[in-house]
Amino acid sequence: MRRRRSALAAFVLTLAATITMPRHAVAGTTAEEASLTGAQLFAAKCGMCHRAGGMGTGLLARRPNGGTGLLEERGDLQSAFVIAVVRNGTGNMPRIARGEVTDSQLSRIAAYLAREPLR
Amino acid sequence: MRLHLPPGMSAAQLDRALKAMGQIVGDDYVFATDLDRDTYLDHFAVNAEAHAPSGAIAPATAEEVAAVVRAANAHKLPLWPISRGKNFGYGGSAPRLRGSVVLDLSRMKKIEFDAENGTALVEPGVGFYDLYDYVQQRQLPYWLSVPGNSWGSVVGNALDRGVGYTTYGDHTSKICGMEVVLPNGEFLRTGMGAMTGSNTWQLYRYGFGPSWDQMFVQSNFGVVTKMGLWLMPAPEQMISLAMELDQPDDLGWVVDLVAPMRRDGLVQQSPSIGSWLRGAAVLTTRKEWYDKPGALPDDVIAAIRKRFNIGWWSIDLRLYGYEEINEATVRVIQKQFARRTQQPFTIVRTTTGEKPDSTPFSGVPSTFPLQNAAWHGGRGGHVGYSPVLPATGSLALAQFKRTYDRYREFGMDYHGSFAMGERSITNVNQILFNKDDADMMSRVDRMFRALVADATAQRYGEYRTHIDYMDLVAATYDFNEHALRRANERIKDALDPNGIIAPGKSGIWPKRYRGERA
Asked: What is the pTM of this model?
């Protein structure tokens, strides 16, 4: 005999089902990561939280005018702001150290999100 | 944050030590600016400054790790190894001993996979997402077991006895062979890896003579640079049996029904019996429900339950394997539950290859459960107190009532779950908080200590804890005047006479820093 799944369980499953998996991150060594583009680095370093279904996306979507919460859909990000948030953290987002994302990689990610050419 | 030096070390000595590290890993991977130090603080800390590092070093290879450890001995520099530093609620990337230099292994991301046997040999920087992508891209017929926060390291999670949702969810039990850099810089391989060129390192756990894998789990006896792990063959089918339980007291009989199913292996995954806040804190914030201080009153709890159509407790039993066996198992479980309730299970069947499932229940990594840290607004966080108790309903119920009373006494919202092990229960009590609320933060610390005292009075010990409470919890393991701690510290002093690897981890202090014990 079946019963209606709870609204909560259904919501969580739906949320999880929207995750675009796999990220197709290049899960390689840091030497391989040196040649990646900003978009590829965003997928590898930020995608777990900032693509569909991630913690960051969920929390940003709750904000006033947060829209989908997806950073890649926003047109109002500036690279200096992205870099400051990554290194200093904000709200639930912890700081990201240079051991995990180098300055060079962060510059490429920030330029990608800000839709700016790399300087 | 201002520089906090390692105890007994001058700024000039630290500078010389870090310069030596730069010659090993490259100057670009020695991090010692104020901002660098801040990036390695504990994001969920009650008092981040208490665990401030003096810098960080990020080697790229196991050989560099060994060279760093040798140099750290020469300079008497305490190191705090982290895999990826995402152990939120337990200290993140921050060291137990203030002034330690973080040994950040997140650049070490090599994966070797034995597709025939379903084993992986991974470095500490490999995250659950990395390993998932690796398996998916190669269409390997294996499932991961992932924790709710899958941002972190596969190795780091297993080393901290982290858990996941599948039958392989006791991650430390799936370790098969390690490579470790001992505190003197020497390489050691455990199990069959002790034989040069062994082709069974990831296949047989024990090797010959004493088997040391667990010696490097939750310890500071070495730096793990490679770990072998078994992965679950993709099952033909997964079945989920979910039930919502209306009353707090239902916990008792559910534990007594499920415990025998875990003992005899009918249910091979660890079902978790969780309270109403578990999902609500992920999906909503507190101010949507209530704007007053103190624990949420019963009418608000009722409103939350009504909106999400959930019980006071929820339980989800999951079966993984062949369809015919699963269906027979469902019938046995239903028969057992019918002895206590007429309420049916909500049953969801997922057949591999037919219907995609994208939840952590089938090993897909996730981070959205971390949204619960935003429950109170402000800069959120959480800390967990998780004692282990016998798998007995009356004891679980008594533990719940004691704990629930403490949450109400300290004005905090109850967020508890009881994870059913094969012979025990791990009672995970999440304490969600707002770091910008000083009064709340003082209550969190006092409540944590009260919970430890309550559980210890029942002789329940915690399985894993935050760096703030490692000494407190270690002290509760007190048989024969703390014989275990004394033995651990004799081993520590023998292997690590300069006390350079993770001083204070799990309450194990080397002689050099023993005065730092809280």
From this structure: 0.95
